[in-house]
Predict the structure.
Amino acid sequence: MIVSLNWTQLRSWDGSQNRAFEELCCQLAHAEIFPAGSLFTRKGTPDAGVECFWSLPSGEETGWQAKFFSSLDKTQWKQIDE
């Protein structure tokens, strides 16, 4: 089955499509499987570019940054690269 998504129709959350997308990404990140003893942290706003992260028992961290754009041009690609 092929699923087609129109992200411009994403329902707002907390008054914003951007926040809705960030929340979705955080929920997906939280569902990831990490070693026992790992700790999931949701940053909230302002998030300084990292929406959430997992801290592993080894001291390593894996973080997620979400960006919601209704279109992609040079300006958005520059933000992604940075």
Remarks:
- Helices lie at 17-30, 74-81.
- The mean pLDDT is 90.
- Residues 17-30 form the longest helix (14 residues).
- The CA atoms of residues 12 and 67 lie 15 Å apart.
